[in-house]
Amino acid sequence: MERRVAEQLRSALGPLGLEAHAFKVGWYNAVLQPAFHLPYPDDTLAFVVLSTPSMFDKALKPFVNKERLKIIRDPVDQCVSHHLSRVKEKFPDQRVDVMFDYEMLPSRKPKFLAQTAAHVAGAAYYYQRKDVKLDPWGKKKIFGVCIHPKYGGWFAIRGLLLFPDIQVPFLEQPAPVDCVSTEEKRIELLEQFNFHWQDGRYRDIVEVKERYSEEQKAYFATPPAERFRLLGLSQEVQ
After folding, report:
1. What keywords does the record list, in alphabetical order (predicted)?
2. Where are the alpha helices (DSSP H) in 50-203?
3. Quick check: 213 and 53 in contact, CB under 8 A?
4. CA-closest candidate to residue 50, choices 153, 127, 194
5. Which structural domain range is residue 24 located in?
6. Closest by alpha carbon to 25, among 117, 156, 92?
7. Which of 49, 50, 23, 28 is nearest to 39 (CA)?
8. Which residues contact 85 (CB under 8 A, 6 or more apart)?
């Protein structure tokens, strides 16, 4: 069942520059405190959805051109929401719950921890302070970051698709690729991400096969309120 769902997702999302990676809810809940648990049985099938560098041209720009007058909030969020809602329609006999990376609970906690989901699904390795043996940061707060073996840091985690009626007790957990494997490189990665994230160098910590285009870099480097202009949308639309 999992394989059939995965193939349907691949055929629906692949042409849009989106990837879906399967995991069991139990893998996710096992590494988090109860406050962050997903409220489903451990064997519930879920997929974490990533956007790859090609999503900008394959999904976002066509969506903006088609839905120009209906865009009232962040165009990327709205584009992903639109396409994941359409994916749900491909499973008329299944309940499909969707969670987006920007959604919050009433407690102001995120609905799910995106980087943890990507790690347990084997999609990208979540490098954290605990992955460095000789910690050089003292009392500084250090945030972790996911690195993809193919895209480095040139990708984003967009959402979850959960299938509450599909239980997959025998699904085997894939290990994420540990592509930043030396202590020195991990320190460099976390330093760049925490203290120099604006220059984007952390994204190229590994040799990447694909990265954002110059147009896409300019888009994400622009303050959100000004991005509408880059896509040819008027400020009134926002």
Report:
1. Cobalamin, Cobalt, Cytoplasm, FAD, Flavoprotein, FMN, NADP, Oxidoreductase
2. 55, 61-67, 75-88, 114-120, 183-195
3. yes
4. 153
5. 1-231
6. 117
7. 28
8. 98
> Strands of 156-167's sheet, edge to edge?
18-24, 44-51, 156-167, 97-100
- Rounded to whole angstroms, the Cα distance separating 26 from 22 reads 12
Q: Does 236 reside within a domain?
A: no
List the one residue out of 151, 155, 142, 147 whose CA is nearest residue 195: 142
The pLDDT tens digits for 18-44 are 999 999 999 999 999 999 999 999 999
- Angle ∠(206,212,216) on CA atoms, nearest 5: 155
Q: Indicate the number of domains in the chain.
A: 1
* Residue 227 confidence (pLDDT): 85
CA–CA separation, 84 and 137 (whole Å) = 40
Assigned domain for 166 exists:
yes
Q: Which residues pair with 22 in a beta bridge?
A: 47
Q: Is residue 142 part of a domain?
A: yes
Residue 73 tokens, joined: 């909030």
Tell me if 238 is assigned to some domain.
Answer: no
Distance of CA 100 to the CA centre of its chain: 9
Token pair 């102001």: residue:
108
What is the pLDDT confidence band of residue 69, given thresholds at 50, 70 and 90?
A: confident
Residue 190, amino acid:
L
Summarize pLDDT for 140-161 with one digit per residue, the tens: 999 999 999 999 999 999 999 9
